[in-house]
Write a structure and sequence with these properties.
Elements: H1 3-17, H2 20-26, H3 31-52, H4 58-62, H5 66-92, H6 95-102, H7 105-115, H8 123-139, H9 148-172, H10 178-187, H11 190-196, H12 206-233, H13 236-243, H14 246-258, H15 264-286
């Protein structure tokens, strides 16, 4: 996959993801039932797709190596923990605060990639991250441990940490097919929520059913499929910086869709983050630095 193709898929995935926080905040379902609906739909679609291509069957699963099982279990666990903390962040606080917390994803990813030897960040990468982090700080509400907004922010930050493991895992196991890894990401995350399901309530009305269908199939299946492909082929610094586009896009979407307020301070932070992304991506594109060291050819 070319860097330009991977970048296009990443932008499309981010556009889809940006609509999710306000959907999560709007639906009546709590975290666990909501995750089960999304994961169940995605697992079903990817199972049918892989079975139709002859890449998934009982016989093929019996022939998987221990490494393949470890890969699928690892991406599933990381993804499940990411969704658990992210959904709770939005439910406890607001869509905007949940996104703000998750925006630390890029910092976690840069540090983890550096610690694991996935290349040294360049000066422009660090400058972009510093600018993006400064923008994020402008968006943080008053810190008060006595309210749900603060707790939601902390859950969002934890979600960013779990989410940062995903592209590293996908790149480490890039020899395993991308569709199979995407299937494992959803299917192996599902048991975590099924374990937590007893006692959960399932209030669903007509509007919620439509929103669930959109985020389950349009966002979860299409969006995450594109993101798995993109993060397998892009470098860690690029993924880190791209992730910050999610923040301003999601804040703007939540403003227009559900009326969450954007203060001048929040707007300033979002603009700073957006500008940092554009500047750094432009310099990386000019230096042809978008391809990941462990990318695989199509």
């Amino acid at each position: 996959m070319s860097p330009q193709s991977a970048l296009s898929r990443a932008f499309l995935a981010i556009a889809l993801f940006s609509s999710v926080p306000c959907c999560i905040k709007t639906v009546a379902l709590s975290t666990v039932p909501l995750a089960i609906c999304r994961l169940g739909a995605a697992s079903l679609v990817f199972s049918i797709w892989l079975a139709a291509k002859g890449e998934l069957s009982w016989s093929s699963a019996r022939g998987w190596s221990p490494r393949q099982w470890r890969a699928l279990a690892a991406v599933g666990l990381a993804f499940g923990l990411h969704w658990l903390t992210y959904f709770e962040s939005i439910k406890l606080a607001t869509a905007g605060i949940g996104v703000i917390g998750f925006s630390t994803y890029g910092v976690h990813l840069m540090v983890l990639g550096w610690l694991l030897g996935r290349g040294q960040p360049r000066a422009i990468d660090i400058a972009g991250l510093v600018a993006a982090c400064c923008g994020t700080l402008l968006l943080v509400p008053d810190f008060d441990v006595r309210n749900d907004h603060t707790l939601g922010l902390l859950f969002g930050i934890l979600s960013g940490l779990f989410g940062a493991f995903l592209p590293l895992l996908h790149q480490h196991y890039s020899d395993i097919g991308g569709d199979l890894r995407a299937w494992g990401q959803f299917t192996f995350a599902l048991p975590l929520f099924l374990f937590l399901a007893p006692g959960s309530e399932w209030p669903i009305d007509g509007r919620d059913a439509l929103l669930l269908a959109y985020i389950a199939f349009g966002v979860t299946v299409v969006g995450h499929g594109l993101w798995v492909q993109a993060t397998t082929a892009l470098s860690t610094p690029t993924i880190s910086l791209l992730s910050y586009l999610y923040l301003p896009c999601a804040l703007v979407f939540s403003f227009f869709a559900i009326g969450e307020t954007l203060t001048p301070r929040m707007m300033g932070g979002a603009v700073l983050i957006f500008a940092a992304n554009l500047a750094t991506l432009w310099t990386q594109a000019r230096s042809n630095a978008l391809a990941a060291a462990h990318a695989v050819e199509e």
